[in-house]
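[Meeting: bench + compute handoff]

Bench side (C.D.) handed over the final construct sequence. Compute side (W.E.) agreed to return the predicted structure before the next meeting so the bench team could plan truncations. Sequence as handed over:
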Amino acid sequence: MKTTLFAALFTIFATTAAFSQKQLGVFDAVKLNDSTTLVMCLNGGLKANTTNTDGNTLLMEASKNGSYAAAKLLLAHGAKVNAQNEMGNTALMEATLRGDSKMAAILVQAGANISVINTVGETALSIAEGFDKNDIAQMFIAKDPHVKDGYAKTR
């Protein structure tokens, strides 16, 4: 009886432990801001500019999810700050859409180009203005006072 009970409890424990330690993909690690997993993957040979099926880079996913530590880690490992997905969006555009001024500042400091144009003709500045993300728009204009001139030419 004790052996059967012990075996049943062990099976339940092993199943629960295996479920809670389920392997997550690197995009999940970025979404969860799991720097430990991300750095292990990067040190193990993962390219910082890896994309998913939508063409989103790891940096874009970090930007979409407010994963600041992951974004900084990816940038330190050579992630292309101006990479574009299938829609032509950049990590900066994703941060701007979310209204995440902290992420936008990280990306601008890393050299993000405010004037990149996506497939529908929008820039990070036009997105900021179109979605009333005024603090982000002001940051862009302060960084490059002539960015508004470039935007006017694309309209």
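W.E. noted at the follow-up: Residues 26-143 form a domain with the Serine Threonine Protein Phosphatase 5, Tetratricopeptide repeat fold (CATH 1.25.40.20). C.D. will use this when planning the next construct.
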